Amino acid sequence: DSPTQRVSEAPIEGFEHVTHAVPMLSIDNTYDEHQLREFDARVAKGLGGEKYRYVVDPKVDGVAVSLTYEKGLLKVAATRGDGVIGDDITQNVRTLRSIPLCLTGRDTPRLLEVRGEVVWPTEFFKKHNAKREAEGLETFANPRNATTGTLKQLDPRNVAGRGLTFVAHGYGRVEPLKAATDTELFDQLKRWGIPTSPYRVVVDSIDEIIERLPEWDTRRKKLPYETDGLVLKLDALDQRDALGSTSRYPRWCIAYKFAAEQAESVLRQVDYQVGKLGTITPRAVMDPVQLSGTTVQHASLHNFDQVDRLGVMIGDTVIVEKAGEIIPQIVSVVVEKRPKDAKPIKRPTKCPVCKGEVEKDAGGVYLRCINPSCQAQLKERLIHFVGRNQMDIDGAGQVLVETLVEKGFLHDFADFYHLHKRRDELIALERMGEKSVVNLFEGIERSKQQPLSRLLAALNIRHVGASTAELLAEHFGSMVRLIEATEEELTEVDGVGPELAASIVHFFQSTAGERVVSRLEASGINMTQPKRSRIAAGPLAGKIVVVTGTLSSMGRKE
Ligand code: ZN
Questions:
Q1: What is the C-alpha to C-alpha distance for residues 35 and 291, in angstroms, rounded to an integer?
Q2: SS3 of residue 356 by DSSP
Q3: 87 or 292, higher pLDDT
Q4: 257: nearest Cα among 231, 234, 235
Q5: Which residues place a Cβ less than 5 A from the ion ligand 1?
Q6: What does 61-86 look like in DSSP terms, one character per residue?
Q7: Is residue 547 within 8 Å of 469, Cβ to Cβ?
């Protein structure tokens, strides 16, 4: 249970099977008030007039997992599988910081099998997607599927750090079980360090639940993770035993599913967005429509495979849904309403911005503009270059960078360092003025001192994000040494695989890469990584200290 042993070093070959001691049944679903009342009537009848209470909890839309603790230590984590046999995903689950490797407290049971959902909180999911995008990887469509994929990674190092978390919702075997109600058991779980839902409530009647459905539907949209309904369970454990289960579902529990909010609109046209790596993404432009309290006019079509799957045409009436309450997307086409003059959506043969050549991505799903001087890509790349985690140029915001590209001031990264020669022209720009120009110049000047790791992250080398840049800079120490490195030498760096090594070599050998690096160097940009100074003596010498949170004198990043 050592906290330093959370992430194991080696990938596994495959997943062993685990037989669940108590089958993991699924929960029956209801979709309206009438069905809820029917369920309640069955419960009342089954209990023959006894009083009962329900526990109500948001239904977390994640991946069902069972955790087994023996003598307080996490022994096995398994997927639900078919309910009887699941996969052993212990290695991956150990990397989730919210899951205790060791239970806390004096009254921990000999054996505890707790069940719940592994979820990817929206905030971390978005961050991870942004990182993937920056590294030129395909983004995930929704947190649930992405969580399934993450838990099935053979290398636990790919799971650690993604921010997945766990929410308990039930149990299998507990020995000894010292609780008479679900509420008591969950208080115990919480004490033992198992993450439980803070939104659980106990209610006395089905009326109270039905009355509060609209309130819960509104509130769930503000939760940190995705939910798609409510789960109602009898609170008293002996009453659960009395009711038992059918072959498929427990009789003492039911899910109420909220309808995903959908709206109907007409697809008027498809436009294209070009990302900083040239990826061309189709976007639907529709008649404005109300959805989950906002006016929606655009929806993502993700890629052209998705367009084919939907069989959507321009002029079609489409059903739009908010995917995971984040991005609206088209889920289906109302084919009966297709007008005679509906037009197919054509794949662009030229870049919609620069009219340059396009190519199919290696994966065959995305189209990519391969013109290195494409203006759309250029804007995105320059905005990334000046970003806070890269060169951090104060005073160079998105709008300004876009304007400077349009007015011909910027053609590549190095042009920032020649802007001072055009001071008067800059001041003359609309909404600029002397003060903002001075501010911009100061920011540019300061950025020259950024360490090599920042510069590498800023250069937009495929697959090189902030953490890889850091590794490379630490390992090679200077740009000169990095440029000279062969693919083989690059793969010696921890965390650098063959694909990444090839991409780095390709960048530095390309005409554009060579040119921009030499121009940056000529402008006086720092091309080295400062050596971490080591002090030989003192009480902290040789120790690595990890600080979490913020200090009064500095923020998290610093
Ligand atoms: Zn282009």
A1: 26
A2: coil
A3: 87
A4: 231
A5: 351, 353-354, 356, 369, 371, 374
A6: -SEEEEEEEETTEEEEEEE-TTSSEE
A7: no
Please give the distance, rounded to the nearest whole angstrom, from the Cα atom of residue 371 to the centre of ligand 1.
6
* Residues designated as active site: 59
Percent of the chain with pLDDT over 70: 96
Q: Is 208's pLDDT higher than 60?
A: yes
Among the listed residues 308, 297, 276, 250, the one whose alpha carbon sits nearest the alpha carbon of residue 387: 276
Rounded to the nearest whole angstrom, what is the distance from the C-alpha of residue 458 to the centroid of ligand 1? 20
Check if the beta carbon of residue 72 is closer than 8 Å to that of residue 84.
Answer: no
- Residues 114 and 65: their CA atoms lie apart, in Å, by 9
Separation of 263 CA from ligand 1 center, angstroms? 33
72-80 mean pLDDT: 94
Q: Is 244 exposed, middle or buried (0-12, 13-18, 19+ CB in 10 A)?
A: exposed
What residues are paired with 491 via a beta bridge? none
Radius of gyration of the chain (CA): 28
Of 305, 299, 304, 302, nearest to 318 (Cα)?
299
Report the pLDDT value the prediction gives residue 419, as an integer from 0 to 100. Answer: 93
Q: How confident is the model at residue 293 (pLDDT cuts 50, 70, 90)?
A: low
**181, 235 Cβ separation under 8 angstroms:** yes
The encoded tokens of residue 168 equal 């308990």
- Residue whose token pair is 């208080």: 187
**pLDDT tens digits along 185-201:** 999 999 999 999 999 99
Whole-number pLDDT of residue 278: 82
Residue 186 has a pLDDT of 96
Rounded distance between C-alpha atoms, residue 314 and residue 299, angstroms:
13
Query: Which tokens hold the place of 551?
Result: 């200090």
> How far does residue 384's CA lie from ligand 1's centre (Å)?
17
- Span from the CA of 372 to the centroid of ligand 1 (angstroms): 8
Q: Which residue has the tokens 């052993």?
A: 88
Distance 280 CA to ligand 1 centre (A): 9
State the pLDDT at residue 64: 94
Contacts with 484 (C-beta within 8 Å, 6 or more apart), sequence order: none
The pLDDT tens digits of the residues spanning 233-244 come to: 999 999 999 999
Residues contacting 342, CB < 8 A, separation 6+: 313, 314, 315, 316
Q: How many residues does the chain have?
A: 558
